[in-house]
């Protein structure tokens, strides 16, 4: 067995390279989201539509070529496959409308989730040690959820911009980490026997 040491210069270079590449990709993605928010949202929708078409074709392939499962399983695969493919094709037919629709659906999901989280927090209030913090959390969740539901497209736009700012900040920090990583920081793990 060979002993691999995390102190080797090659390992440190690899870690730095990984951090630099990940940081650069994150930074670029954040900048793209901030400079071209509508275009980047359309690209994300296009990727999602591609996923739907590919997933639909996989389901159709399972229905036709899979030897397992009975008639109901195959019928389910056909229905899902057709639904996915049709949805993907419709999304590609009008990417702008699909982007707006997807943004509204995601925002509504977030709003409903926040309201549900607030209601669950309220239901657990008798079991929490800090009722004031639980009540505050529950009320904030419910109010934020209602605010998102009242204007889902605006909420989606704000959340998209927050995502862009977050990606820029994370990318910059990751790049700084890549260029300032020292030998001592890379040696936080024991040797590994290979």
From TrEMBL:
Keywords: Membrane, Transmembrane, Transmembrane helix. The keyword Transmembrane applies. This is DUF308 domain-containing protein. The lineage of its organism: Bacteria, Bacillati, Actinomycetota, Actinomycetes, Micrococcales. It comes from the Bacteria. Coiled coil: none annotated. The chain crosses the membrane at residues 15-36, 42-65, 77-96, 102-125, 132-151, 157-176. InterPro entries: Acid_resist_chaperone_HdeD, DUF308_memb.
């Amino acid at each position: 067995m060979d002993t691999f040491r995390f102190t080797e210069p090659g390992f440190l270079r690899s870690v730095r390279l990984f951090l630099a590449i990940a940081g650069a990709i994150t930074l670029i993605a954040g900048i793209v989201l901030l400079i071209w928010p509508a275009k980047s949202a359309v690209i994300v929708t296009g990727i999602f539509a591609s996923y739907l078409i590919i997933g639909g074709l996989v389901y159709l392939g399972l229905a036709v070529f899979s030897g397992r499962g009975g008639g109901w399983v195959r019928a389910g695969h056909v229905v899902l496959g057709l639904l996915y493919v049709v949805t993907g094709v419709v999304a590609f037919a009008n990417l702008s409308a699909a982007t707006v629709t997807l943004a509204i659906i995601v925002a509504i999901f977030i709003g409903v989730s926040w309201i549900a989280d607030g209601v669950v927090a309220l239901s657990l209030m008798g079991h929490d040690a800090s009722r004031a913090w639980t009540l505050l959390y529950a009320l904030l969740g419910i109010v934020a959820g209602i605010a998102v539901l009242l204007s889902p497209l605006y909420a989606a736009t704000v959340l998209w911009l927050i995502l862009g700012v977050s990606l820029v900040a994370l990318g910059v920090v990751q790049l700084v980490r890549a260029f300032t990583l020292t030998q001592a920081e890379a040696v936080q793990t024991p040797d590994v026997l290979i």
